[in-house]
Amino acid sequence: MSASALLRLTVCVVAAATLTACGVTDAQPVASEPSDGETGTYSSYADVTYLVECVSDELRNRPESFVLSCADGNSSLQDLHWKRWGDTSATAEGTFTTNPCEPDCASSKPVQQHVNVTATALSRGEAGQAYTKLEVVAIDSVEGGITQETFKLPGLAKSQAG
Questions:
Q1: pLDDT per residue over 105-134, tens digit each?
Q2: How far is CA 41 from the centre of its chain?
Q3: CB-side exposure of 56: number of CA atoms within 13 Å?
Q4: How far apart are CA 77 and CA 64, in angstroms?
Q5: Do residues 107 and 117 make contact, with C-beta atoms less than 8 angstroms apart?
Q6: Is 86 buried (19+), middle (13-18) or exposed (0-12) by CB count in 10 A?
Q7: 130 φ/ψ angles, rounded to the nearest 5 degrees
Q8: Residue 92, SS3?
Q9: Pairing of the two strands 75-85 and 90-98
Q10: Three-state secondary-structure class, residue 18
Q11: 3-state SS class at 6
């Protein structure tokens, strides 16, 4: 066999091995442990689970704060403490801040209240997943606040995350 034929054969074998390796499925993610004093239940998918904030490239994993009304910033979550993350649903407690815009947004004062947050409706990408629905339920009643509100969030593009 000539040297050039041997070189072509070697290139073909390496290319075939590379293409075969691309078809191998990734191993299951390993369990994620709560960090920085967090307590809670986290699934093995916790590190590849996100909330998409405002635009599709703002992936947030167990965010401490999160903007809900992207156009004007009138609704947001702060001081989020996640108790569960990465399963079919995630739960947290935190503070909801909104501007009730009464009589108008410019003169209205923001209202804060303690809330429970539940994230559901997973959208799966190629290497991750994102919750696409947030339900925010008030723990306390505040004038101008909410009792319950549901927010739809963007999901992941198929090739996103990871």
A1: 888 889 999 999 999 999 888 879 999 999
A2: 16
A3: 9
A4: 8
A5: no
A6: buried
A7: -140, 140
A8: strand
A9: antiparallel
A10: helix
A11: helix
